[in-house]
Design goal:
Layout lengths: L1 H11 L3 H28 L1 H4 L5 E6 L7 E2 L2 H6 L4 E9 L2 E3 L8 E4 L1 H7 L3 E2 L2 H9 L3 E5 H7 L6 E6 L4 E13 L9 E4 H11 L6 E2 L1 E6 L5 H11 L7 E5 H10 L2 H32 L1 H9 L4 H37 L13 H15 L2 H9 L2 H5 L4
Helix pairs in contact: 1-13, 2-11, 2-13, 11-13, 11-14, 11-15, 13-14, 13-15
Length: 386
């Protein structure tokens, strides 16, 4: 066995430059494959983080149309409803247009009860609830701008024009590494008060309702009851699970995701083509050697086993290095795309998936050379000697 492994290694490095370029190609392909899968995972992160006990109620026409705040009491009275909260997309900018982040006006008390994945100390929570102009933000957002507790900041409103003043009262952390820590939350009452003073038509309206239910199995029934309650009203509703709500945004970019998945498949084919090309070149150079092996009693399949071993050496070497590089590079990419993908973590499934692809590619790449060796005639092959 040791002799076989030694022979495979010696054969693999007969042409150091070719071997290096082959392994480098595989490293790049594995790295690209890993980053693409991480990108797809990040794209679906909101869906995976959704809770089965939360429903989202929005205007049936579109999310950009508001709902009256008076709906909250009627929703509370529906059987199966446990908590009702509400929110509005604010879309503020901090100092410069490039400093964009998700910002929401929420009903703080009910929202924090409904979203236990946002962890905040009791002391900071009390300060936040006490201060009408207070806000809380995720740990990553705080670190990005270097804000401190008690600091006053000003956001420029894009949807709601003007300069809006807020005071940082708390920093929330995610319950796990997949919780978004880049969001900005402040009191809906503060937003509504200012809008009322301005005489805005958005006064006493919210963007959507977040509904906590007692039994996830009854989600379709509760959703139907909510929508029937406001049927034929001035603002009819569409209620769906949080998962379905998140998926509705992903469906808007379905063609892009299909393209990305096709690219990942192409990368797998590239790995196979690169290694196949190397192994075919190797076979042509070693025809006389394989003929000698056959003369010494080696069968075509045994010689093929050596070729498979050499091919797997290339693919697995590139695979291991590619996996190793995926993590630090994905961290750098994640920091660059943090505004769009607050959670950019390499899924663990990437490791076994890359290994499987590399093994399959290594085996498939030798099919043609092995076939040639098996049908090769010794007398014809030996003519190439000399």
């Amino acid at each position: 066995m040791a002799y076989i492994l030694k022979l495979i290694l010696r054969n693999a490095f007969r042409h150091p430059l070719r071997s290096f370029l082959t392994i480098l190609s595989i490293i790049i392909a594995v790295l690209a494959f890993g980053l693409i899968q991480t990108f797809i995972k990040a794209w679906y992160q909101g869906v995976e983080a959704s809770s089965p006990i939360r429903l989202i109620t929005r205007n049936s026409i579109s999310l950009i149309f508001p709902l009256p705040i008076s709906y909250k009491e009627k929703i509370r009275q529906i059987e199966g409803v446990n908590i009702v909260s509400w929110g509005t997309w604010f879309g503020g900018i901090y100092k410069d247009e490039k400093n964009f982040f998700p910002s929401f006006a929420i009903d703080a008390n009910s929202y924090l009860r409904l979203y236990p994945e946002y962890l905040i100390s009791e002391e900071e929570k009390k300060e936040f609830l006490r201060d009408r102009k207070g806000f809380i933000a995720g740990k990553k957002l705080i670190e990005r701008f270097g804000w401190r507790i008690g600091e006053t900041i000003i956001l420029k409103g894009k949807i709601y024009p003007g300069s809006w003043e807020f005071t940082l009262r708390g920093v929330y952390k995610g319950r796990d590494e997949y919780t978004d820590e880049t969001q900005f939350f402040f009191h809906w009452d503060y937003l509504n008060e200012v809008l009322r003073n301005r005489g805005s038509s958005w006064t006493d309206h919210v963007g959507w309702y977040m509904v906590g239910i007692t039994n996830p199995e009854k989600a379709p029934i509760v959703a139907l009851l909510i929508d029937n309650t406001f049927k034929n009203s001035i603002a009819e509703t569409l209620t769906e699970t949080e998962r379905a709500f998140q998926l509705s945004f992903i469906y808007l970019t379905e063609n892009l995701l299909i393209t990305i998945r096709i690219v990942s498949m192409i990368i797998i084919l590239i790995i196979i083509v690169v290694v196949t090309n190397t192994m075919i070149m190797t076979y042509r150079e070693r025809i006389p050697e394989y003929a000698v092996f056959k003369t010494l009693g080696y069968s075509g399949l045994k010689i093929g086993g050596l070729m498979v071993g050499e091919s797997l050496f290339f693919t697995l070497s590139g695979c291991f290095v590619g996996i190793f590089l995926t993590y630090p590079i994905s961290k750098i990419v994640g920091q660059m795309l943090e505004i769009y993908f607050p959670v950019f973590k390499v899924p663990f499934v990437i490791i076994p998936l890359n290994l499987l692809v590399s093994i399959v590619a290594g085996i498939l790449a030798t099919i043609i050379p092995i076939y040639q060796v098996v049908k090769m005639k010794i007398s014809e092959a030996l003519r190439n000697i000399g």
